[in-house]
Amino acid sequence: MEAMLRNYPLGIYTFSEIIERNLFYIDKTGYVYDITNKYKYVFLSRPRRFGKSLLVDTLQCYFEGRKELFAGLKADALEKDWVKYPVLRFDMSKVKCESEADLRSAIDYRLSLYEDIYGRTKKDMKFGNRLENIISQAYSQTGQKVVILIDEYDSPLLNIMHKKDLFDTFRSVLKEFYSPIKSCDSMLRFGLITGITKFSQLSIFSEINNLTNISMLPDYDGLCGITKDELLTQCKPDIQALADKLRCSYDDAVSKLTENYDGYHFSSGVDDVMTDVFNPFSLINAFSAKSIRQYWFSSGTPTFLFEQLKMFKTGLTSIDGQRVKEESFNVSPEVARSPLPVLYQAGYLTIKKYEDDFQKYTLGFPNREVKFGFLNSFIPVLTNESEVRCNDLLEDMTIALRADDIDTALTALKAYIAGIPYYYENKTEPAFQTIMYLVLSLMGQYIKVEVNNAVGRTDAVLETTNTVYIIEYKVDKSVEEALKQIDDQHYADPYLADPRRKLKVGINFTTESRTIESWKTVEVRWSPS
């Protein structure tokens, strides 16, 4: 069956263009009506390319009273008045400066655009006074309260967040710029502030004591992104077109999309049920190209992310699967004691589980795209090696394992580790464990891999068509000790009924040579007593 073709808004975040050109659009206008009638000042944190700018543009059109754009959408049935308000919109996403002078120039330019419309009463005013004047003039000239929309407020700060003096300077300038939002309260109808991180609550917007952070409220899980329900009800022709191109069934196409782009959860959910949210950027690109690829991750990895990992000396094995309280990740990076807040708020980790009894969240990679994209990007940071060399290793190991040749696979791994010129503290057990975690996890792109770090569980299990490899590794010990632990802890027991061949693999690493010294494989044999 040939699926209906649709046009997709690739790189388009303008609501009017999407509507007027009848491009692919998931109706979020019900949320727009809700938040604008329930709150006065709203803060929303979402990862990059998750639809924040489109939301801001939709709000601008809504407050400008452009009723014709909302025909047939949810807001059209809810809104009765359609008042035209003056809207001040400041898009900070392009403000990436390296000096105070550049930042001041960028803000000056944005203020001057509205001063050309509403006028400027005095010269040499501070940014805050200029913004206050614009609000006052807009209010008096139109007779309507003013709407202020600030998109990606934290963009100027992210690239310089590890340069303390510059960061403090930028923060002071921005705080001065935004300060009138509170003093002009009587002239303001609504305000929305979006960003990736939560610098807002402690610094820049600290004076706005009624700013409501809706980022983790269950009612707004689907405000940005595409929910699983929206995918299955509104994207059927798109899924079918993808399935036709991939020559798979409709259900298989849904599974591929889910595995690669789903998995985001922005709250603990309602009644233990969390709303599944797909990355909209990747999903729309997959529909358009009719191909499953790493769209979101390949569009750019923020440098501040790896700076955070370096600063806190964070190992890969401690990132995925952490159980933490909300205050460990839903806080400002300014007071963070780990990289969790940035990793979560930037979309590299998400909520996987919530335990109400202990009020603890389990954080993990949301999906395949993020996990493997993140691990691949970590290779140069960790090893000073290129992704190409690691990918060659993964291919060689995968080919060998599929041929049931574990010796060739481990020989390739030994050579790779021995050739690494530098990585963290390269004569320690954690360093070797990190390398093993990285390589074995990345192999999950090609074969089934389970890498564990908890006490009492084997280090890794690799599964191919014919064989299950149960792996335990030691540092400066012996392969016999590794194999004995597999037996003593009964690591093979979950696979005893599996008809495939099962091999125990003991590996020993030495800090002297900084690579694998030896390994030994023993077949698991079991018969009912």
Give a brief outline of the structure.
It is built from 21 helices and 15 strands. The protein has helices at residues 15-20, 29-38, 52-63, 74-78, 100-118, 127-142, 155-158, 164-178, 180-183, 228-234, 236-246, 250-261, 280-289, 295-298, 303-311, 340-345, 368-383, 387-402, 406-418, 429-442, 479-488; strands at residues 41-45, 87-91, 146-151, 188-195, 211-213, 226-227, 277-278, 322-324, 350-355, 360-364, 448-451, 460-463, 467-475, 501-510, 515-523.
Give a structural overview.
The protein contains 21 helices and 15 strands. Strand 11 (448-451) and strand 12 form a beta hairpin. Helix 5 (100-118) runs parallel beside helix 6 (127-142), helix 5 (100-118) runs parallel beside helix 8 and helix 11 crosses helix 12. The longest helix is centred in the first third of the chain and has 19 residues, at 100-118. By secondary structure, the chain is α/β, with parallel strands linked by helices. The protein has helices at 15-20, 29-38, 52-63, 74-78, 100-118, 127-142, 155-158, 164-178, 180-183, 228-234, 236-246, 250-261, 280-289, 295-298, 303-311, 340-345, 368-383, 387-402, 406-418, 429-442, 479-488, and strands at residues 41-45, 87-91, 146-151, 188-195, 211-213, 226-227, 277-278, 322-324, 350-355, 360-364, 448-451, 460-463, 467-475, 501-510, 515-523.
